[in-house]
Input
Amino acid sequence: MKSTIIISFFTAAFLAVGEAKTVKLLTIGNSFSNNATTYLAEIVKSVPGCELSLTRADIGGCSLEKHAALIGECEANPALKPYFNKKYTLKELLQQKRYDVITIQQVSHQSFRAESYQPHAAELLAFIREHAPDAEVLIHQTWAYAPDCGRLSKFGITRAEMHAGLVECYNRLAEESGISRLLRSGEAFYRLYAENPQIDLWNAKDRFHAGEEGCYLAGCVWFGTLFDISPERVNHKLRGMDDKTAVSLRKTAAAVLKR
Output
């Protein structure tokens, strides 16, 4: 009787989150995609029936223009291996396994500049679709910097202006590219700051990378988008994070997914 009860309990817990799902994910990005996926594996693992296989093609500070340029550079120089600890070309990573989802994004300091996207994004997308035709491509909408980030004054813009600009640019890229889904980390950051400004989402040193709370928030957004499950079902929280903060971050991620 006891074993039957235990089995029933775990079956109910499993069914509560829907069908079991494994996502094979490749990120083509930079430090911001690293931030967004910092805690993603733990977040996914906390929800029964969900599994993640993550491969990174991320280079710090790498723009869409640089990723696109590396395609030709690698073809011209077979010894050049810029990805995954300098062991692979992008083509090799794309052909390494059959991915469910591949993500792209702009480097943060160009994310609000419309002229920085094309033709580089189109070149990168064409290469992805040639070598991984079965994968769904998602655009990672990165976030605006903290209000006190020194880079904003150098750019001559406010946090709100940076956010509005990057949202417009990413939405335009999605429309031009026929991509229907975005990983809306930027909107989650913007909404959370408006509702709970006491939660600091940004790295204390540079104020543009995500801090622990920001990485967790973006991870919840990615989880909800990739698995089509509400982030409010996530059971993982960071060491030292209080329950109230964890709930607020998960609720914000869920709200952005419902928009």
